[in-house]
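EI: anyone free to look at a 242-residue chain?
SC: sure, send it
EI:
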Amino acid sequence: MRVGLVVTCLVDLMRPGIGWAAVDLLERAGAEVVVPATQTCCGQPGWNGGDRAGAAALARKLIAEFEGCDWIVAPSGSCVGMIRVHYPTLLADDATWSERARSAAARTRELTQFLVDELGFDAVPGRHDGTVTYHDCCAGLRELGVKSQPRRLLAKVSGLELTEMAEPESCCGFGGAFSVKFGEIAAHIAERKCAQIAETGAGAVVMGDLGCMLNVEGRLRRRGDASTRVLHVAEVLAGRED
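SC: here you go
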């Protein structure tokens, strides 16, 4: 089983350990992991910003790079949402690429979704001695239905206790360009999220998208919280928190 890993731009540039954690988990689940060296962006920023032509060019590039893979997996609900939900629409009028886009969409899964729903994986190697809370990132939850899968896997992590926050499904305020265009609103939403994280008393908040992680961690530090860790679910599951 050949699984192509979409590393994602943010992971590649900001926190590559998440990518290595994803590789560890996929290999432990029995996959042959393929990471095309030429991969770049999935095209989501362009799509969201109205650059349809630019997004389409990147979509064609990614589709071609991963066509030899049985599955396409990413440790990011937002990038997976772009491929699964938006590629078929983006390339619908392209006779050469429309079917290839639909095929790629059908084979693409978010990391925890793939491990649980497609592989039934539960041999989680990680260990975490302490309490965590989990934030449901918007794209994974609302576009893909990722909700129970990360929690099911976290329940297998030795030493870990999950304490839910008041509103785990509410937005963190990031929203890509939203946090830039509407900074004051985004900051208010992030503050509310961070207050709920603090109320749990958890030593770490776990989630599945690095963009949300960066936004939450930035707000936590600005409000004087220097101790609460912000972790990607792959890091916790794979035992790669450091």
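EI: The chain has 13 helices and eight strands.
SC: 👍
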